Amino acid sequence: MLQDLFGLNGKTALVTGGGTGIGAMIAQGFAGAGARVLICSRKLEVVEATAAQINASGVSGTVEAFAADVSTEAGIEAIVAEVSSRTDTLNILVNNAGITWGIPLGQFPFKAWEKVMGINVAGLFHLTQSLLPMLTESASDADPARVVNLGSVMGKRPMGDGAYSYAASKAAVHHLTEILAKELAGKRVTVNALAPGPFQSNMTAFATASEEQATAVGNDVPLGRIGAPSDAQGATIFLCSKAGAYVTGEIVPIDGGLHVSTSGNIFAAAMD
């Protein structure tokens, strides 16, 4: 029953930015569930090393790596050509590639907007649009094709101090996810997003690189820890397996409760 609900045997997935962080976690989870996984990033040596590590870990699926760049139209066209050369079928697209930029207010540069929005929003949209023919070809009523976008808790709540373009880009990803979910349902493609809280990755290395730092950050999360690989893997496998076939247009928080945390009970002082 579990294999039927959560297995990905026979599925082919593309994970952008799949060499490190949450992208690598998802690739590991997909391969463990039996999928053929294509991972890409600008740094070929990084995705190749990740693919080799996952393939050597005893997973039932496989991982393949190639170099890619979602920041330009030509780069996106090259990704589509590479995927098409490797497979006739694409069941799952995970738009994980992204960048951040953090500088205090008053010093935040103009160029940080174009670059971050270009990769995190425009690149995500155009890659999805370009791969739609392959995704719809694999889709059916009972087994839709899947698109999973990487948003952020910073796109749900005003927590992105100093990361203005990043937080705004993730709010845009959430809204774009809902638009695409509505438009693509008739084509039997589900579109959902993850809204992660803190996980260990290159993007958060400034705050989570050491176990001491990770523990300190986790202490500010309602559930008392930062995200683990299994948290990202479980949520994504659910959305992309039979278990999640009837779910679309959702922004799934994997943030330990950060999106519902507040500054406290405003009446607490009166009730003491």
Question: What report would you give on this structure?
Answer:
The protein has one domain (2-255): NAD(P)-binding Rossmann-like Domain (Rossmann fold). Helices cover 44% and strands 14% of the residues. The chain contains 10 helices and 7 strands. The chain has helices at 2-6, 21-32, 44-55, 73-86, 111-138, 164-184, 205-208, 211-218, 229-240, 268-271, and strands spanning 12-16, 36-41, 62-67, 92-95, 145-150, 189-196, 251-254. The protein has a 7-stranded parallel β-sheet with strand order 3-2-1-4-5-6-7, with helices on both faces. α3 links the parallel β2 and β3. The protein is globular and about 60 Å long. The protein starts with a helix and ends with a helix.
**Total number of domains:** 1
Which overall shape is indicated by the principal axes computed on the Cα atoms?
Answer: globular
Major pleated sheet: 7 strands, parallel
CATH topology call: Rossmann fold
- CATH-scheme architecture: 3-Layer(aba) Sandwich
Provide the β-strand percentage band: 5-15%
Question: Structural class of the helix and strand makeup?
Answer: alpha/beta
The CATH superfamily is identified as: NAD(P)-binding Rossmann-like Domain
Query: According to CATH, what is the class?
Result: Alpha Beta
By DSSP (H or I, 4+ residues per run), the number of helices equals: 10
User: Which regions contain 5 or more consecutive residues with pLDDT less than 50?
Assistant: none
Order of helices and strands: HEHEHEHEHEHEHHHEH
